[in-house]
Amino acid sequence: MEKTPNTVPRQSWTFSNEVNAEIRRAAATGIYDIRGGGAKRRVPHFDDLLFLGASMSRYPLEGYREKCETSVKLGTRFAKKPIELKIPITIAGMSFGALSGPAKEALGRGATLAGTSTTTGDGGMTPEERGHSEMLVYQYLPSRYGMNPDDLRRADAIEIVVGQGAKPGGGGMLLGQKITERVAGMRDLPVGIDQRSACRHPDWTGPDDLEIKILELREITGWEKPIYLKIGGARPYYDTALAVKAGADVVVLDGMQGGTAATQDVFIEHVGQPTLACIRPAVKALQDLGMHREVQLVVSGGIRNGADVAKALALGADAVSIGTAALVALGDNDPRWEEEYQKLGTTTGAYDDWHEGRDPAGITTQDPELAARLDPVKAGQRLRNYLSVMTLECQTIARACGKSHVHNLEPEDLCALTIEASAMAGVPLAGTNWIPGQGGF
Amino acid sequence: MMQTIDMATTPLRDLNALLQSQAEGNNQIQFSIENPKGSHAVAVGLDAPIEVTVNGSTGYYLAGMNKQATVRVTGHTGPGVAENMMSGTVIIEGDASQYAGATGHGGLLVIKGNASSRCGISMKGIDIVVHGNIGHMSAFMAQKGNLVVLGDAGDALGDSLYEARLFVRGSVKSLGADCIEKEMRPEHIEILKDLLERSGADASPEQFKRYGSARKLYNFNIDHAGEY
Ligand SMILES: Cc1cc2nc3c(=O)[nH]c(=O)nc-3n(C[C@H](O)[C@H](O)[C@H](O)COP(=O)(O)O)c2cc1C
Fold first, then answer.
1. By alpha-carbon position, which residue is closest to atom 4 of ligand 1?
2. Which of A50, A188, A333, A387 has the fewest CB atoms found within 10 Å of its own CB?
3. Fold classified for A34-425
4. Is A203–B99 a contact, with Cβ atoms under 8 angstroms apart?
């Protein structure tokens, strides 16, 4: 008798193994998944853009001979002492508390060697990072942990944090495991508690109040320091316009791939717009107000290499900022710790339980033994090397497009590989002159 | 000797620069400011044991981030008075608007009239004494320090409170999440007595009730999730 063929077991796309595993985890624990890092899903990104390069109608610059400038000035609008960077890449704000003291020191060392700035984070300024950072941006956050006028004056610029790309509309989170005595002392909190920092500033609401807050900060610091405003990628056109209205010198715009030390996975994956989709609306707002290049735009969220830098600049940013990539350069998620990642139930590249403080690489931890694994001098050198490579890559592309300054890159130098990226970046689909949403269709 | 600065003719920047340039040990310690007319950011970022009297009413952030100085306002004051104060004393003869003493790390803020909502929000060690009433959501996420209210408190007092101590003489409309009434022990009577004295308040510590954190939200527990 002939056997009738069986139906092949078919997994549901909707209820995949991964989805079901999360349902079981939620059912067992009763708490949402918290993790570090940025969005892991694929969203349209810089990889979906290409540079056209030069040929008959555009002249390239000679690779190793002709100059291609990379310097950037941030804070030229009102500040008496703007920040002058040698490269268009800065180190994003990451808190002491989330990161160890040596990791903060390494970021300062690497950034300083590369001629760029680094940034404090939720939790205040540490002597390690001030001491090792030639240019240090001081974050002014809703929690105001460790906030004091002396550190404010010790800073080279002030960054008012309204939001982050990983969690626009959310506050900070540092779980009890990482609240050691030093961290607790800086935050005026008891040791070992779960610390949820507020999502709104305690003493202002809305752009009209913010304008007065900025006045106060400038009065306290003698109008010397550039004031940045950091926003998550939510409504980039209006948020940027309102930042300008409130008197910011610099807008820092962080898209949804941007990393975080810890927040709910559902927040990271489902709130906010991709970095690629945020840049053009922000630039348009600046242009509409006659403020493009007057108020500088710093873009972050998923910047990994010199091509990403060049693409962000070509779309109109003045500089970019990196978080996750800087941590990887220091040694985060390095294969040399694979055995230990396995013990933690994860693997190289996927380790994101930064909030638990058990980082084998000794970066996102407050455990002194783990933290001692990171040599801040060597790690700083690695960061410097990585920043140099990104800058060289960006220059390579700029020269190929015939630009003597990386800021001369423009949307006209780009095309898109997908219709989505074309619509978001406002550059034509490769091989066509079509930009969805423009020209009536 | 008292130096008088008239804001009708002196720009804010010059006023603050003058006050900020005072150092400990200078002869000049008394300043009088005329015609503030609701100006914002008056006498901010001071860092010397000087005495500043503002004759009139001010706008946002009077005496913001104050260190050491004593700043007195004869009228009323706007939002965020003495925000993030580190030390020194700020005295408001009239009423204060929202967020009075927000995130203050130290020093003493005295409001002789009433304070509005979110008084002492996120306070981190400051002492605040309000002779009148305070509005809703006061001492939200308050971490450290003492908030003393001679009058009544509005809704959701001490919501998500950490270790700050709240003392209220009058009624409390409602307590916020994780805030409970606590026993008044001798050490609290002492703290209160000292603060009442230093702020010129006519009240006896025994008339107050103490409120503090139940500490149930300090570490996540699924059975308390509904309280957030
Ligand atoms: C470990 C870690 C800690 C962070 N801490 C802060 C913080 O304290 N304040 C803040 O504004 N952003 C914080 N961020 C976000 C970064 O400033 C930045 O927006 C983001 O990392 C940029 O995206 P990228 O990681 O893809 O480069 C943190 C990010 C990471 C990875």
1. A94
2. A50
3. TIM Barrel (3.20.20)
4. yes
Measured between alpha carbons, how far is residue B10 from residues B67, B72, B144 in Å?
Answer: 23, 19, 38
Residue-wise pLDDT tens for chain A (441 aa)?
678 888 899 999 999 999 999 999 999 999 899 999 999 999 999 999 999 999 898 899 987 789 999 999 999 999 999 999 999 999 999 999 899 999 999 999 999 999 999 999 998 999 989 999 999 999 999 999 999 999 999 999 999 999 999 999 998 778 888 888 998 899 998 888 888 888 999 999 999 999 999 999 999 999 999 999 999 999 999 999 999 999 999 999 999 999 999 999 999 999 999 999 999 999 999 999 999 999 999 999 999 999 999 999 999 999 999 999 999 999 999 999 999 999 999 999 999 999 999 999 999 999 999 999 999 999 999 999 999 999 999 999 999 999 999 999 999 999 999 999 999 999 999 999 999 989 776
Sign of CA dihedral A272, A278, A284, A287: positive
SS3 A282: helix
How far apart CA B130 and CA B147 sit, in angstroms, is 8
Closest residue, chain A, to B83 (C-alpha): A203
Cα gap A146→A151, rounded to integer Å: 9
Which one, of B150, B65, B74, lies nearest residue B115 by Cα?
B150
Cα of A289 vs centre of ligand 1, distance in Å, is 29
Neighbours of B214 (CB within 10 A): 17
Residue A153 CB-density burial (10 A; 0-12 exposed, 13-18 middle, 19+ buried):
middle
Helices A306-314 and A376-400: angle between axes, nearest 10 degrees: 50
Q: Which structural domains are found in chain B, ordered by start? A: 2-217 (2.160.20.60)
DSSP E strands in A285-349: the ranges are: 296-300, 319-322
Cα separation, B151 vs B132, in Å, equals: 5
Give distance in angstroms: CA of A260 to centre of ligand 1: 5
From the CA of A92, how far away is ligand 1's center (Å)? 6
For residue A398, the one-letter residue type is A
Ligand 1, residue A165: give the atom nearest the CA. Answer: 19
Tell me the one-letter amino acid at A114: A
Is B141 in contact with A213 (Cβ distance < 8 A)? no
Q: What is the pTM of this model?
A: 0.96
Spatial contact of A126 and A139, defined as CB atoms under 8 Å apart: no
Could you report the per-residue pLDDT of A330-376, keeping only the tens digit for each? 999 999 999 999 999 999 999 999 999 999 999 999 999 999 999 99
What are the pLDDT digits (tens) for A36-80?
Answer: 999 999 999 999 999 999 989 889 998 778 999 999 999 999 999
Q: Which two tokens stand for residue A67?
A: 């100059």
CA angle A297, A298, A302 (to 5 degrees): 140
For residue B215, which amino acid is it?
A: R
Q: Look up residue A316 and give its two tokens.
A: 């109109």
d(CA A281, CA B164): 44
User: What's the angle, vertex CA A143, arms to CA A139 and CA A147, rounded to 5?
Assistant: 55
Residue at A368: amino acid letter: P
Where exactly are the structural domains of chain A? Answer: 34-425
Closest CA to A202 of B86, B117, B43: B117
